[in-house]
């Protein structure tokens, strides 16, 4: 079989040499906004004559390094940008190709390594990594600092190396789960994610034993650029999941699923990102189906089909990024990012399931209720507006409210009188669920200008990847 080339990596390919282990020693400097230290890389030759090495021979190469204050993998927050307003905060996001912006590494998902780390931070702060916590001790070189130790014994691609430093607290919410955040969010987070252990158990039933030991959750400050990131042993999630009613818990089911699909079995190159995400969405929806019923799984499958259609409409039908397997030669994976690998990947697996004897066509019950309510609004004359009442949504889950708004968005904007009436009877402004609020906002043309103004005002303090992606969405440079 010809070798798969990772066009997103500048490192030697896995066929030449493979990093087996990283030992990281580093210190976090909030004043200069740099992370500096040494990376000791255990490298194994895959060739018979690699310089002076024979096949399978290992050497340890230790490299001193310091990050740039502009590293695309790190976001440094001032105390004002945190909930507590007292201490600075740092978090990393390495997927897809940003690990190289932290430390010297063979930055390709085709190579997997174990890692251990010693991280020195100001003593009033806590450091966490995508690994098992392995103790803490005063820094012998500086009485104002502390060293945290970590160990990840399961081989991972380096995009799963993750670090966070802040004034963090934790609550135990399950036998193998702590939820971490600033103290202002910790109670709310413990409530919101209380279903985690039951989801883990279902996932184990579907995927086999959970081999990572701990499954902790970290709720980040609002500038975290994604809904969730499946960093091993410590899933990172956005605080916008704190809806107050557990209605966005499918994101946790998604990140839990990555413990098998993505983190254990990994795409070899980013061209095949759908292997990570399509299988994970498939597993996520099975978990939610077991928890909330098969109808619910089909409802989300149909919602995903709608998301896929939106993405394809946005790119244009023949755009190369709408393919299941893309060609990322000379392309930043962040630019190609969309719902396509998630939902087209899921659709393929769902189709195969039906071919091979799954439960049949989509169960439309929950979706039909959303469609018929949206049709009532679309066809309503001014005289009909009194027929709507808060009872219309009485039997709707928040997922259905979201789908109802998605249906409305696919049609021409409603007249202003209709929108006013909708707010009067449904009071969407009072809803905390961020997905619903987002759809609600997107429904109004006038919010577009406001979005651009807000973007320009806050761009400088946004995560670099977010700034790039939001700019792309709003079509401003
Ligand atoms: Zn995912």
Task: Tell me the CATH topology of the largest domain.
Answer: Immunoglobulin-like
Q: How far is it from the N-terminal to the C-terminal residue, by CA?
A: 42 Å
The coarse overall form would be globular
Number of strands: 15
Helix/strand order, N-terminal first: EEEEEEEEEEEEHHEEEHHHHHHHHHHH
**Sheet with the most strands?**
6 strands, mixed
- Helix fraction bin: 25-40%
Calculate Rg over CA atoms: 24 Å
* Hetero compounds: zinc ion
Helix count equals 13
Low-confidence residue ranges: none
Structural class of the helix and strand makeup? Answer: alpha+beta
- Based on the coordinates given, report the CATH architecture of the largest domain: Sandwich
Please state roughly what percent of the residues sit in beta strands, choosing from under 5%, 5-15%, 15-25%, 25-35%, 35-45% or over 45%. Answer: 15-25%
Protein name: Peptidase M1 leukotriene A4 hydrolase/aminopeptidase C-terminal domain-containing protein
Family: Belongs to the peptidase M1 family.
Keywords: Cytoplasm, Hydrolase, Metal-binding, Metalloprotease, Protease, Zinc
Organism: Bos mutus
Provide a descriptive summary of the structure in words:
The protein is α+β, with helices and mostly antiparallel strands. It has 4 domains: 159 residues, tricorn interacting facor f3 domain (Immunoglobulin-like, Sandwich), CATH 2.60.40.1730; 99 residues, Zincin-like; 85 residues, Neutral Protease Domain 2 (Neutral Protease, domain 2); 80 residues, Alpha Horseshoe (Serine Threonine Protein Phosphatase 5, Tetratricopeptide repeat). It is 34% helix and 21% strand. The chain has 13 helices and 15 strands. It has a 6-stranded mixed beta sheet with strand order 3-2-1-6-9-8, with no helix packed on it. It has a 5-stranded mixed beta sheet with strand order 11-12-13-15-14, with helices on one face. A 4-stranded antiparallel beta sheet has the order 4-5-10-7, with no helix packed on it. A hairpin with a 6-residue loop joins strand 8 and strand 9. The mean pLDDT is 93.
């Amino acid at each position: 079989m010809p070798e798969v080339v990772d066009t997103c990596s500048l490192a030697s390919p896995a066929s030449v040499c493979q990093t087996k282990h990283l030992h990281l020693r580093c210190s976090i400097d909030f004043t200069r906004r740099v992370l500096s230290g040494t990376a000791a890389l255990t490298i194994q030759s895959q060739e018979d004559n690699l310089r002076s090495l024979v096949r399978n021979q290992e050497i340890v190469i230790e490299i001193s390094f310091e990050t740039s204050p502009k590293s695309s993998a790190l976001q440094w927050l001032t105390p004002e940008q945190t909930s507590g307003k007292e201490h600075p905060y740092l978090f990393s996001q390495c997927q897809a190709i940003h690990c190289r912006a932290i430390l010297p590494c063979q930055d390709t998902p085709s190579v997997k390594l174990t890692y251990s780390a010693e991280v020195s931070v100001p003593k009033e702060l806590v450091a966490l990594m995508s690994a098992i916590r392995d103790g803490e001790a005063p820094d012998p070189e500086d009485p104002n600092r502390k060293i945290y130790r970590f160990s990840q014994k399961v081989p991972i691609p380096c995009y799963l190396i993750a670090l966070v430093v802040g004034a963090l607290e934790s609550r135990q919410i399950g036998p193998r789960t702590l939820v971490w955040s600033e103290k202002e969010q910790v109670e709310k987070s413990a409530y919101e994610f209380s279903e985690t252990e039951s989801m883990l158990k279902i996932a184990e039933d579907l995927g086999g034993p959970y081999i990572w030991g701990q499954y902790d959750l970290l709720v980040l400050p609002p500038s975290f650029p994604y809904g969730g990131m499946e960093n091993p042993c410590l899933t990172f999630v956005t605080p916008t999941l704190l809806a107050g009613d557990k209605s966005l818990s499918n994101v946790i089911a998604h990140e839990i699923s990555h413990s098998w699909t993505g983190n254990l079995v990994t795409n070899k190159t980013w061209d095949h990102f759908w292997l990570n995400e399509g299988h994970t969405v498939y597993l996520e929806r099975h978990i939610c189906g077991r928890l909330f019923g098969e109808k619910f799984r089909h409802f989300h499958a149909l919602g995903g089909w709608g998301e896929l259609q939106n993405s394809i409409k946005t790119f244009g039908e023949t755009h190369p990024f709408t393919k299941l397997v893309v060609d990322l030669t000379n392309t930043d994976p962040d630019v190609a990012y969309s719902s396509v690998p998630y939902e087209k990947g899921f659709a393929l697996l769902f189709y195969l399931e039906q071919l091979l004897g799954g439960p049949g066509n989509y169960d439309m019950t929950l979706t039909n209720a959303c469609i018929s309510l949206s049709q009532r609004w679309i066809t309503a004359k001014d005289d009909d507006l009194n027929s709507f009442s808060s009872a219309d949504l009485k039997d709707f889950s928040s997922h259905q409210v979201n789908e109802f708004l998605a249906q409305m968005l696919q049609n021409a904007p409603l007249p202003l009188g209709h929108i006013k009436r909708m707010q009067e009877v449904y009071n969407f402004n009072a809803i905390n669920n961020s997905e619903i609020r987002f759809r609600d906002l997107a429904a109004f043309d006038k919010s577009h200008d406001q979005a651009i103004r807000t973007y320009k005002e806050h761009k400088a303090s946004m995560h670099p990847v977010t700034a790039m992606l939001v700019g792309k969405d709003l079509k401003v440079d």
